[in-house]
Amino acid sequence: MVAGEVPSSFDAYKRKKFFKDARHYYWDEPYLYKRGPYSIYRRCIAEEDVQGVLENCHGSAYGRHFATFKTANKVLQSGLWWPTLFKDAASFIAKCDPCQRKGGITKRDEMPLNPILEVEIFDVWGIYFMGPFKPSSNGHNYILVVVDNVSKWIEAIPCPACDAKVVIKLFRTIIFTRYGIRRVVISDGGSHFINKVFEKLMKNYGVKHKVATDVLAFCMSFGAYGMKGERKDLVHGRSSTGYAKEEGGSHLEDQLDHPVEFLNSTGQASTRSS
Ligand SMILES: [Zn+2]
Q: Domain residues for 222?
């Protein structure tokens, strides 16, 4: 085009096409320009410069590793053009090391956002009957243990039998009055917990009653842990329950009336092993 000659290898069709295409090009020593849409002239660049231009328009701080279309647009905005611009940009990005490492992170790759269940202190209680033990002088041979799931606060009351009456009395007189209406009570599903009266009480107060088989382990471990002494500030029970009476008795069965001491003496073994 610069020499004003047509390559001799061109046939009639190719000659026609060549002259038609040539209308869009403009030679301004020493550069060749192409007229694009809106009559914008863009400089055509040599093949060996392609990689450098793409590096600048994609990999540099100016390029910021955008995708094919945006990278090609950056090249066009810089006033440069070559016939295989989009194709070269795509293959350049496919080989770009940082892009391969990062990958195309889309919304689909996001980890699902799980709502965090917020459990406040005294919201969840684990409840369990311990026993039967050898009856104390007051006729108590069970201990009803209620452990708060968060703080591991323990309420324990000695009782002569493991029935719904004791459970309901504990919730009415201690748990609900002292700690307010809570959200969930977890029991081991024993018949003293699964009955109409208890269910009605829970329903009236809007408390969920759940059954978990490992509630024993839970109560025992935290009960024993609480008794160990590290959490003695949290251990309650004893006469605060209103059930146990102060009584001087050093026998194990008599300690049943003071469940905290009793748990302390029986829970030692399991505490040490853990
Ligand atoms: Zn990249």
A: 124-273
